[in-house]
Amino acid sequence: MSKQEDTYLTVDVPGPEILYKDRKSKFFGYVFPITSEDDVKPIIEELKKKHHTANHVCYAWQLGTDTVRYRANDDGEPNNSAGLPIYGQIQAYNVTNVLIAVARIFGGTKLGVGGLISAYKTAAQIALDESTIKKKIITQHYKITFEYKDMNSVMRVIKQKNLDIVSQKLEASCSYVISVRKTKANEIFDIFNTMQYIKIES
């Protein structure tokens, strides 16, 4: 993702379960939205309970936009034959904050490493095709502190620049937390920073 971009692709809700078959082996594919690495383990444990006859539940996940973290897990399949092909589809679809898992139920015929790579890749691809992928905006939050008398000046900028107020406190002095598109963040900071009696911080 280039520094100029301020959007990313992800899923809001889990995709439907998909089934891909290869020489009687069944591959059940899933896509889940995640917000942290802690989300992964409970989802995988649930899938292992659901598919208690599955020999392997392999997966890959990615988190972040500027700084990306990811992991690929073969769950006992030959090295790099499952997790990395699944992760390859995360990269191909350019999605993040997602977990893709594929549960395999062995059908009696060995597929070989090449066959496994192809099957896990295909299951992940179908699962992503069946999911609703959405474009989201990367935003930055700023806190603005000011006196009541300066509210009109602050509101004028907020309206002109079409900014969102995430939260507000109107007490002895006022403070807003505003949400700004990443590509506009420096410009908005500079506008408020040059206004007298108004404090802005990230």
TrEMBL record:
Name of a matching Pfam family: Impact_N
Origin: domain of life: Bacteria
Impact N-terminal domain location: 23-128
A single Gene Ontology CC term: cytoplasm
GO terms for biological process, alphabetical: regulation of translational initiation
Family that this chain belongs to: Belongs to the IMPACT family.
Protein name per Swiss-Prot or TrEMBL: Uncharacterized protein, YigZ family
Organism: Cellulophaga fucicola
Higher taxonomy: Bacteria, Pseudomonadati, Bacteroidota, Flavobacteriia, Flavobacteriales
